[in-house]
Amino acid sequence: MSPHFLVIGEALIDIVDRDGERSHHVGGSPLNVAFGLGRLGVRTVFATEFGDDADGTAIATHLASAGVAIERTDDVSRRTSTSLARIGADGSASYDFHVAWAFRTPPPVGDAQAVHVGSIGAFLAPGGPRVLELIESLPAEVLVSFDPNIRPAFVPSREETRELVERYAARATIVKLSDEDAEWLYPGRADDVAGILLGQGARLVAITRGAEGSTLYAPGATVQVPARPTRAVDTIGAGDAYMSGLLAAIAAPSGMVAALQDLSAADLAAIGRIAAESAAITVGRAGAMPPTAEELERAGRAPVGDVAPTA
């Protein structure tokens, strides 16, 4: 049986503006990770908030299609959160959010072997501090993964956010962030971020760089993984698909935390290739639609490129 992942964070409706034409998609970084895990066959519960409205129904239906169970953490009478994403000619996205996050009723952890948290749900008050409290209270054997996915409009000052990121990293086994997140958190010191987060206690840090690929760091190894060449339709959900692919790559029925204590360059390369494939499949089609397990398996049969150990 696959492990039980608990994902915590925001769910919303992405309103996508492409050349003046708008479409609506279910979104939110943690939701995308939960959905991606479900499509990859990982048993997943998503703790989130959305309203008892048409948008909320769309969210529930979307998650159900991937077999993801839902735990509601706030009053269903509230309005479902939204995000307006404007897609540029190069496929990049800019965002305008209308999001509320309370986390009044924390979910039961139960038999979860791993908990993932990130993005707005990790920081936005009043829910963010409650999420951090839950994460810091988890038993040591529960794997924690964290993706700050910085949205400046929803986080406190840079200094306060950096302190929060380091607190999450102190409990997390896995931290994934983009190069833009790293530069925002540590201006002029982005190259030091992996070492800082590993020093806080993380065992695996992944930094994504879009079309330039990603770099994975463990205490004894560093590996650069190229991105899969693909025609980008849009980049919505690319980082989240990388995250769900990475988590699925390390998922095992038991002993996940123990297995990440001594990662070699070969281990990092194997994990990074799966994450890169997951992201590439997602950016090659519209909307945040990560791969199924079958799609990821087929893609994995083709060469990705040379994976380069750097330390």
Automatic annotation (TrEMBL):
Looking at the record's lineage, which domain of life comes first? Answer: Bacteria
PROSITE patterns given in the database record: PFKB_KINASES_1, PFKB_KINASES_2
Please provide, alphabetically and separated by semicolons, the GO molecular function terms listed in this UniProt record. kinase activity
Quote the InterPro entries the UniProt record gives. Answer: Carboh/pur_kinase_PfkB_CS, PfkB_Carbo_kinase, PfkB_dom, Ribokinase-like
**Keywords from the named record:** ATP-binding, Kinase, Nucleotide-binding, Transferase
Annotated stretches, region: Disordered: 292-311
The enzyme class is transferase
- Which is a Pfam family this sequence falls into? PfkB
The Carbohydrate kinase PfkB domain, residue ranges? 7-291
Its EC number(s): 2.7.1.-
Give the family, as the similarity comment puts it.
Answer: Belongs to the carbohydrate kinase PfkB family.
Specify the protein name: Carbohydrate kinase
Species for this entry: Microbacterium capsulatum
Upper lineage ranks?
Bacteria, Bacillati, Actinomycetota, Actinomycetes, Micrococcales
